[in-house]
Every structure is written in structure tokens, then in C-alpha cells.
Design a protein that fits this description.
There is one protein chain. The chain contains 7 helices and 16 strands. The protein is α+β, with helices and mostly antiparallel strands and 285 residues long. A 4-stranded antiparallel sheet has the order 8-9-10-11. Strands 1-2-3 form a 3-stranded parallel sheet, covered by helices on one side. A 3-stranded mixed sheet has the order 14-15-16. β14 and β15 form a beta hairpin. The protein starts with a helix and ends in a 12-residue tail after the last strand. The relative contact order is 0.10.
Length: 285
């Protein structure tokens, strides 16, 4: 956050810092400030929160945010389908950056929507978290970062506990710097069938459906075996998906559930819920 603030000010922009949520700074108050001051760039981790609140109040998102030129994501990992959904709702390009308190911003987004490593400043590796060995291009593992030119607080092979994928092939934008995909915290991985999956994998499927708002919550519990006494390493998951009130139907529930079964197996159930302050998952992924 400090890096975004400093760089924006150095480039002549006015910066309005908003609390993430308190009695004096609610999401609705954020919308009032953004529209009153005609903000042109929104830097946040959860733009779906604003779009859902506006839709709930009967407003057109693009009309309310008519001065908006771009959205810069930060704080939560996002994959292509999620970014595409955000861009479609707000009608502006969406950028992403992988940043940590220990490093600041380590990547930038190219015109094709890929995150490239600032390779003059950072060496990023992907390792197998169990062995510490480097993995091949395109294979997922733990993100490890080394600073290359920092004199104060340098880091050597710093283990982030984040799951990512690094690709070295030339990007469609023409750049040769490595492309990084970040999928979230390793501790959030859970087993479904033979694979470990992260919440962002469910998010990508949920966001395929235009009726969904982008907000959801997942509930995991271990899968019991046939004698109901021994717990399996696999998991059962319930997905509470927030959708526009007019779109709640058994048909939509079945379509989302069927698609999740294709990706994660049969132990996934879906509950469609209306947006609202009392709805579990409205303010949390």
C-alpha cells in the first residue's frame, strides 16, 4: 500500500486512502467518496464488494463509477476469468501485482494481462515445498524470492508460503521476463480426489457464470469413509455463492454444481444466496 501511495504521488496524482472497514469507513462510504471525488483509478482487493452493493441498491455500476479508468488489484490472488469478470462489470482494464510487505511490488501487468517479474530487482523461483528443489517452468510450487539490488534488509531465497507458477517462454506481448501466476497461500490447499486445490480454483469456475456476483464462501469438512468412523484425506465442500436476487433458481444451482463436479469431483454442493449484509460470504471470499 505504501508503494502504491508513494508512486502515485510522485506521478502527480491525488491519493485518497480509505480504511478497509470500520464504523467511520464502511464500503458504502467508500462508494460515496469515490464518486464524489471522481476517482479515476481504484486500488483494492475486492472490487466485487462495491459492484454487489451498488447492484443491491439498484444502481448501474458503470454509471456510478463513470470516472473510473482502471482497477489495480492487490492483496488477493486473481486468475484470468476473475479479472475478465471484473473488467466486464466495471468496463475498465484490470491490472494485478504480486506484492509483499517484505518486498513491495515484485511484478507488473503487461498489455496481455500477464504478470511479469521485475527481474532487475528480484529473482523469483518456484520450489517443491516438501524438498526445496526447483520445479520446471509451468509447474506449481512455493514462491521463493531473492532481492538483487537491495542494500537495506536484503532477502536470500525467502520462502513466501504462497503457491505460484512461473513460466519462462516469451510472452505474447513480446517480453522475455518470466510470467508469474499466484494462486494463494499454501496453507489453504485441500485435497479433492487425487489433487490438492486452492479456493481460487473454485473461484475461477464460479466466475464463469455471469449470474454470480464474484462473492462466495467455501466450507470444508473431511470425507468419511464407508464405515463412517475413519476420516479420509479427501474433503467435502459446500460452496455458498452470492448471486443477484432475480437469478436464484434450481436450474442455475444445478449448472454451477455440475461444472464444479467436473473440476473437483462429486463431493461439492452449492447453495445460492442473495446479497445482503447478513449473508455469509458477502464481505469474505
Amino acid at each position: 500500500g505504501i508503494c502504491f501511495d508513494m508512486s502515485a504521488r510522485q506521478n502527480g496524482a491525488a491519493v485518497i486512502n480509505l480504511d478497509s472497514g470500520s464504523l467511520l469507513s464502511s464500503p458504502r462510504k467508500h462508494v460515496e467518496i469515490i464518486t464524489a471525488l471522481k476517482a479515476s483509478v481504484l486500488i483494492c482487493s475486492q472490487p466485487f464488494l462495491y459492484s454487489t452493493l451498488l447492484t443491491l441498491d439498484g444502481h448501474d455500476v458503470r454509471n456510478v463509477f463513470s470516472s473510473l479508468r482502471a482497477i489495480q488489484l492487490c492483496g488477493l490472488a486473481s486468475l484470468p476469468k476473475t479479472k475478465k469478470k471484473i473488467a466486464k462489470i466495471f468496463g475498465v482494464p484490470v491490472f494485478d501485482t504480486y506484492g509483499l510487505s517484505e518486498f513491495g511490488a515484485t511484478t507488473f501487468t503487461c498489455q496481455q494481462g500477464h504478470m511479469h517479474v521485475h527481474e532487475d530487482d528480484f529473482l523469483i523461483e518456484i520450489i517443491d515445498p516438501r524438498t526445496g528443489d526447483n520445479v520446471e517452468s509451468g509447474v506449481g510450487g512455493e514462491i521463493v524470492i531473492t532481492t538483487l539490488n537491495r542494500q537495506g534488509s536484503p532477502k536470500v531465497r525467502y520462502r513466501t508460503a504462497d503457491f505460484g507458477i512461473l513460466e519462462y517462454e516469451t510472452c505474447s506481448c513480446g517480453r522475455h521476463s518470466p510470467r508469474l501466476t499466484v494462486k494463494g497461500r499454501l496453507r489453504d490447499a485441500a485435497q479433492f480426489g487425487p489433487r490438492f486445490r486452492l479456493p481460487i480454483d473454485f473461484e475461477e469456475v464460479i466466475n464463469e457464470f455471469p449470474e454470480t456476483t464474484g462473492l462466495y464462501r467455501l466450507y470444508y469438512k473431511p470425507l468419511e469413509n464407508s464405515d463412517a468412523t475413519v476420516l479420509s484425506m479427501e474433503n467435502v465442500v459446500q460452496a455458498k455463492v452470492v448471486v443477484d436476487s432475480d437469478n436464484i433458481s434450481d436450474e442455475l444451482k444445478q449448472r454451477i454444481e455440475s461444472r464444479l463436479h467436473e473440476e473437483f469431483g462429486p463431493y461439492v454442493t452449492v447453495e445460492l444466496v442473495k446479497p445482503g449484509n447478513s449473508t455469509p460470504g458477502l464481505f469474505n471470499q
